[in-house]
């Protein structure tokens, strides 16, 4: 783009807590893919299916072998629908992305983490297009579930989209066990993200925290819809694009 980031995106603050130094290069993870918001160079085929009794959508970049796998989890009482556009964009940059309707959307973070780590991940890695690297991405309660999954089985990266810890503070415990490069993205504190209670997670030196000014909880969904924006604050296309970047 001919525009600078400051011209096209809301303010972003990074490196604001211990372990959040942008100087700790993520290149050390071995992942060299360069990702930008919007569509990448690969066409994407979508495939509907079921894994372990849960509906899933596979976003498959065409012409890519050994593709890094991304398991992308939705928030509490939500569905894979609300991350379809984001997953499609990511796949177009050469990632094999799978979204899912988590079994029992009102279930516990432990139940969802077990499904992600023990059922969906092996199925994803068994696909012929898949390589040996994987990442977990999760929004809201899905951020906690994917963090627990990362602590349990590892990953090449974890991304939390305005994640939310539960009343048992399971994320505080799990965060200390995460060795993967960790990217925590936060909007403004509010009721839908438990006033940013996931900011208390100590993810260590191999992590980054990104605050997106004025972002609502719904800005981390793409697409989002009226129920979320009514309960959790209005969405904004520019902020949503910033999340993707």
Brief sketch in words of this structure:
Helices cover 26% and strands 23% of the residues.
Commentary on this structure:
The protein is α/β, with parallel strands linked by helices and 245 residues long. Helices cover 26% and strands 23% of the residues. The protein contains seven helices and nine strands; from the N terminus they run H-E-E-E-E-H-E-H-E-H-E-H-E-E-H-H. It has a nine-stranded mixed beta sheet with strand order 1-9-8-7-6-4-5-3-2, sandwiched between helices. Strand 2 and strand 3 form a beta hairpin. Helix 3 packs across helix 4. Mean pLDDT is 88; it is low at 1-9 and 14-31.
Order of helices and strands: HEEEEHEHEHEHEEHH
Gyration radius (Cα, Å) is 16 Å
In the sheet with the most strands, the strands line up as 1-9-8-7-6-4-5-3-2
Number of strands: 9
Output the number of helix runs.
7
N- to C-terminal separation? Answer: 12 Å
Give the helix/strand class: alpha/beta
Summary keywords:
single chain, alpha/beta, 9-stranded mixed beta sheet, 7 helices, 9 strands, disordered N terminus
How is the secondary structure organized here?
Elements: H1 5-8, E1 12-14, E2 44-51, E3 54-61, E4 67-73, H2 84-91, E5 96-100, H3 109-125, E6 130-139, H4 141-153, E7 157-161, H5 170-175, E8 182-186, E9 207-212, H6 226-232, H7 237-244
Parallel strand pairs: 4-5, 4-6, 6-7, 7-8, 8-9
Antiparallel strand pairs: 1-9, 2-3, 3-5
């Amino acid at each position: 783009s001919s525009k600078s980031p400051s011209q096209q995106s809301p303010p972003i603050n990074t490196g604001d807590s211990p372990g959040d130094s942008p100087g700790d290069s993520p290149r050390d993870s071995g992942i060299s893919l360069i990702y930008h918001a919007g569509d990448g160079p690969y066409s994407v085929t979508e495939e509907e299916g079921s894994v372990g009794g849960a509906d899933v959508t596979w976003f498959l970049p065409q012409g890519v072998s050994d593709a890094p796998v991304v398991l992308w989890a939705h928030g509490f009482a939500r569905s894979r629908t609300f991350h379809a556009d984001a997953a499609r964009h990511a796949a177009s940059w050469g990632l094999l992305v799978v979204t899912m309707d988590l079994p029992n959307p009102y279930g516990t973070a432990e139940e969802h983490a077990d499904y992600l780590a023990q059922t969906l991940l092996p199925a994803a890695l068994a696909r012929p297009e898949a390589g040996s690297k994987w990442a977990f991405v999760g929004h809201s309660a899905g951020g906690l579930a994917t963090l627990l999954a990362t602590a349990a089985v590892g990953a090449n990266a974890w991304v939390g989209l305005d994640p939310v810890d539960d009343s048992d503070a399971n994320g505080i415990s799990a965060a200390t066990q995460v060795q993967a490069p960790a990217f925590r993205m936060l909007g403004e504190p509010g009721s839908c993200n438990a006033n940013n209670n996931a900011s208390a997670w100590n993810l260590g030196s191999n992590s980054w925290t990104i605050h997106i000014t004025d972002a609502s909880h719904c800005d981390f969904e793409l697409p989002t819809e009226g129920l979320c924006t009514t309960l959790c604050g209005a969405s904004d296309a520019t902020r949503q694009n910033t999340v993707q970047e």
